[in-house]
Amino acid sequence: MAKPSEPQQPKQATSAADDGGSVPAHLFRQAVEQAALAISITDAHANILYANAAFQRITGYGQDEIVGHNESILSYRVTPKLVYETLWAQIQRQRPWNGLLVNKRKDGDRYLADVTITPVVGEAGITTHYLGMHRDVTEVHRLERQVQNQKTLIESVVDAAQVAIVLLDEQEHVLLDNQEYKKLIGDLGKEPAVRLLAALREQMGDAFAKAYDKHRNIAAREVCIEASGRPSRWFSCAISWFEEHDVGADAFYEPLRRHYLLLTIQDISELKRQQEALRINSLRALLSEQERIQSLRETLAGAVYQLEGPLNMLSAAANMMGRRRETGSDLPAASALEEAMQKSREVLETLRACIPDHNGEAAQPLNLNEILADVLKLATASLLGAGIVVEWLPSEGAAMISGHPAQLSNLFKQLISNAIEAVNEQRGGRRELRIACTLFADHLEVFVEDSGPGIADDLRYKVFQPFFTTKGAARQHLGLGLAMAQEVVIRHGGTIDIDPGYHNGCRVRVQLPLAAGGNHA
Ligand code: FAD
User: Fold this and answer.
1) pTM score, whole prediction
2) Which of 423, 451, 482, 483 shows the smallest number of beta carbons within 10 Å?
3) Atom of ligand 1 nearest to the CA of 115
């Protein structure tokens, strides 16, 4: 330790004039003595000449124990040498220095000191003394570290979370995000949170605006984001708000509150895909069940139709014999024929009774765009297999009608499979299927167009007759598909025809009335 110079009393103001004011010199001494800050005055080598009461309280050294020692008595020797070198370089240039030093009290206890050293420059321009002031900031530092540790912990937990989390200010600027959110930026581009909030805003309308303005939380909501050229992505989004008190000096006595929005985003695209596959599979099962019933209806109706012809002939024969019976001839034969006919009618009635009814599916509001999209999904494998290029043009806005979803699905399934078959009949040439749904004031129109050979003008109406087929019995066609389609359309109060103005193949046109007030264009 450097040899301390002779302990001296700090240079005192001797008169009011020395201070340039009217404060008496002893008042300076009392003020320093009683200050809450640890104050020491050293010579030019940091040997302590004076220490106030707070200095003694903080360090544990009495005035007699400390005066004459170098300030280095306080050093705990873990403060890097460079810090001291900087300190001395600064004060030797006659500039104040401020920094944190690890100090040791008389009892060996360590504390963190926030130290300010100011050179006292004499009249000759030489530094004669140093004024040291320090505070014990151990507790402040501990609290700061604790906050920092908690922040790090929270950030690590947020970062490790399997859902994307992002914190936004009220201007929707991102303040904090996690790894999952960063992955979303990679997938969706900047800024996923803003896109998702816009989608929520559009989906929820006024309810979103109200909740947002009043800083109310929003429970998990499913949102779809369309990505160009890629499958749509589905997210479950939840919003929670929290308040923060402004930490600025202005807000010390008049607290200001800031609101922050915490958006949690869970990618549910895979779940949605599974649900959709499940839905399409159950629709496929429903339609194939309907198809089975339909073919039973067709077979029985066909049998009834086929039996009606000979029965009518028998009836005519019976009438003729009846007339002859009046003359007395062929009496037994006429009775036998009468009996046979009676039996045949009974069998026919039994057969008619066996024809299954349409199921009791209730009419309900439905969006025909969705039905058409589902039927197209069901036909995807056949369309791909046949190498047919599909153009699907849904109406702008929901195509709301009141109808029976399964029957309508079957109707369009029939039209699409007719179209696929027609295109397959062609060797070479275009292989196209175009389905368009257009909204009008009170009805909607669906076109199912194919690039097959088309239907001759003279057959445009006949094709809707039961048992009329252009394919022939060898190809297992009963000719009931379009008849069934017409039956469904009529049951829905609509019309179906073959467009005579279309010559690039066949265009089937279905018109259906819109549900009252159901067109959400
Ligand atoms: P030292 O050998 O004393 O010094 C380390 C380095 O400091 C040296 O390599 C040298 O570059 C520089 N240095 C030291 N003394 C001088 C000098 N007289 N002239 C030029 N360069 C020098 N230290 C604390 O740890 N805690 C305190 O609370 C504290 N308060 C201080 C208050 C005042 C008013 C002053 C002037 C200094 C204070 N110091 C304090 C610094 C203290 O004097 C020592 O420099 C420091 O404690 C390091 O001591 P040391 O024995 O480890 O190393």
Assistant:
1) 0.58
2) 483
3) 28
